[in-house]
Design a protein that fits this description.
Helix content is 5%, strand content 30%. By secondary structure, it is mainly β.
Length: 415
């Protein structure tokens, strides 16, 4: 299967291969946790050794201190570089280079479009690509003079295309006017280069309410916004027409919502899950679940139970713990953990966690790091980077396929 995972062509040190090399990658194409710690830094060993259901903050890692030390005054706008995190901004985890990438700003909050990275190995921030410059008296625009995308609120518009080793970006509220652009962009962290790609379908109101996730098996990016559910194919650089259309019944008007949301792909279950915000009449968390194999909306087949308060937040942080199969969401304090068998949510520990999420949403700045079996959180710009460990060590020993839930029977949609 060509290009299943870019890491198959990389050294085993990057994707934690053992004696079996590529065979150490699960069927879903997700990097495994490192069992041999010989090549890890002290910080990485500490994260791997965290007890189950525990938090750790790395002192001296606050984003604001780093970004202000590298600030460009002409790009400060109304909020300064802290808005690269604080203004509805997302992030991805770059498995190949083992770093979280963060880009944000936009509108009148901040005009810098630099790409930041935080690597657990070093415990430090760095700038992967410096900000594009704006001429004296000029305003930022799309594209910038150096060919890069203009600064924007990124929401959940980012995805890491693992087989390409590149970051996907589209839409968002751009600087300086807050309008939305349709252009798709790829960013290559290896050479810090942006490439413009095909335009996304027009939404009618702009691309602000998207939930975006990459599927390592189909190697496509899937997006749910207020208008529909779409697929983007990097191989052909083409967007699909809506696979599900929220402008028609039975979806309209209840599910054509303007919510800040977040999406993930559950690779073993083959499900795209988007959530965030509350539906009305009757009140319920705004959840959308799509079966990537059967190519249909299966939301009614997977009713969620338990403590749903966290997933009802707009801009919630969400990712899949691929070691256990659990969904883990965060919106301040104790994380919410969903059992992939029962789909019941419970709360984890709040001890050592930031008590409150940054006001404009967490989105993809809460990411699961497979090689360390730990979640990473970039919250408020003045706070240190935090990590949360759901299961000890490298997680459950049972193969992921053994934890895969049996598919429910077909259900007729009724909304």
């Amino acid at each position: 299967m060509p290009n299943l995972v870019r890491g198959l062509m990389l050294s085993c040190g990057l994707l934690a291969c053992g004696a079996g090399g590529a065979a150490d990658l699960p069927a879903a194409g997700v990097p495994r946790c490192v069992a041999d710690t010989a090549g890890l830094s002290g910080v990485e060993r500490r994260l791997l050794a965290l007890p189950a259901d525990s938090w750790l903050a790395l002192p001296g890692t606050a984003f604001r201190k780093f970004c202000e030390a590298n600030a460009v005054p002409a790009l400060e706008a109304n909020g300064g570089c802290r808005m690269a995190v604080e203004a509805w901004s997302g992030g991805v985890f770059d498995d190949e280079r083992r770093q979280m990438l963060v880009i944000g700003g936009g509108h009148m909050d901040y005009w810098g479009n630099e790409v930041y990275a935080f690597a657990p190995a070093s415990g430090r921030w760095r700038i992967v690509r410096p900000a594009s410059r704006v001429a004296s008296g000029a305003l930022p625009s799309e594209p910038m003079p150096d060919g890069a995308p203009v600064s924007r609120h990124t929401y959940d518009s980012l995805a890491y295309m693992r087989h390409l080793g590149q970051m996907f970006l589209f839409g968002g509220a751009i600087a300086p006017n807050g309008y939305s652009e349709n252009t798709t962009w790829w960013f290559d962290p290896a050479n810090a280069r942006w490439q413009p790609k095909a335009s996304a379908p027009r939404s009618g109101v702009g691309h602000y309410y998207m939930a975006t996730a990459y599927d390592p098996l189909t190697q496509q990016v899937y997006i749910r916004n207020e208008r529909g559910f779409y697929a983007y194919d990097p191989a052909s650089d083409r967007w699909s027409w809506p696979l599900v259309d929220f402008s028609v019944r039975p979806y309209y008007p209840r599910q054509q919502t303007h919510h800040y949301r977040r999406a993930v792909v559950m690779p073993e279950a083959r499900l795209f899950v988007a959530l965030g915000g509350m539906l009305a009449n009757p009140a319920a968390p705004d959840v959308f679940i799509y079966d990537l194999e059967r190519k249909r909306d299966v939301t009614p087949d997977y009713p969620m139970r338990g403590d749903l308060s966290v997933i009802a937040n707009q801009g919630v942080g969400l990712d899949v713990d691929t070691a256990s199969g659990a969904l883990v969401a965060w919106a301040g304090g104790a994380p919410a953990i969903m059992d992939p068998q029962s789909w019941e949510w419970r709360r984890g520990s709040a001890r050592g966690a930031p008590p409150k999420a940054v006001g404009n949403g967490t989105f993809g700045r809460w990411r699961y790091i497979p090689y360390l079996n730990v979640f990473m959180l970039v919250n408020k710009p003045e706070e240190d980077v935090h990590f949360y460990k759901l299961t000890a060590g490298c997680g459950p020993a049972a193969p992921a396929d053994a934890r895969r839930r049996e598919r429910p029977a077909e259900t007729t949609l009724s909304r």
